[in-house]
Design a protein that fits this description.
40% of the residues lie in helices and 24% in strands. By secondary structure, the protein is an alpha/beta fold. Strand 8 and strand 9 form a beta hairpin. The site of calcium ion (CA) has 5 residues, from loops.
Length: 218
């Protein structure tokens, strides 16, 4: 999922961009309101209120006048008035600084659940929260597309062939990596870790001690 981040504070923008990327979001970062209004459309916009060239509320107002892209205001202003005005002019939610990446992602997912209920897709593994479209190799969590590396996708798709079933490390290594893999399987643990992070609490890759892993849909 593509996210436009409008934030002039570099340390905040860099840490948020890094954090969101780790969770599978594709972030485009701009520092001014003018750049935000000139940017290509994205799936969601995060807007700081204190921008160098214009008020973030005016950016929200203009974006809302153009369409229904989900907007989350991020601001250091603790003033309740800004929160109310932000929501009145069409922002979907509001996060106060300082915030953690997890909090921002939780808000983003909540907003997406409200504005974009999951769409039915053929050839898909789906639970109420996780959708794997095998033809397109695309994965959605709560209606939001997450970006997986090819191996992360293969691993998820393999485990999702039989949710709840335990696969041994050897079975997984053979299916996802190489048919004759007899080396250390640390790379598997690294990919499991990345998948867990990107899936959040929408699905669990459970470790079955001494055996392997299973995917549990929630
Ligand atoms: Ca600012």
């Amino acid at each position: 999922m593509r996210v436009l981040l409008v934030e002039d504070d570099e340390p905040i923008a860099e840490s948020l961009t890094r954090g969101l990327s780790r969770y599978g979001f594709d972030v485009e970062w701009v520092k001014t309101g003018a750049e935000a209004l000139a940017a290509e459309p994205t799936d969601m916009v995060l807007v700081d209120l204190g921008l160098p060239d214009m008020d973030g509320l005016d950016v929200c107002r203009e974006l809302r006048a153009r369409g229904d892209v989900p907007i989350i205001v991020i601001s250091a202003r603790a003033d309740e008035t800004d929160r109310v005005v932000g929501l009145e002019i069409g922002a979907d939610d509001y996060v106060s600084k300082p915030f953690g990446v997890r909090e921002v992602i939780a808000r983003m997912r909540a907003v997406m659940r409200r504005v974009r209920p999951a769409v039915a897709q053929p050839d898909a593994t789906r639970s109420s929260r996780l959708t794997i479209d095998r033809r397109a190799r695309r994965v959605h969590v709560d209606g939001i597309e997450i970006t997986l590396t090819p191996k992360e996708y293969d691993l998820l798709a393999f485990l999702a062939e039989a949710p709840g079933a335990v696969f041994t490390r050897e079975q997984i290594m053979e299916a996802v990596w190489d048919a004759n893999w007899f080396g250390p399987t640390k790379t598997l643990d690294v990919h499991v870790g990345a998948l867990r992070r990107k899936l959040g609490d929408a699905a669990a890759v459970e470790t079955v001690r001494g055996v392997g892993f299973r995917l549990v849909l929630t």
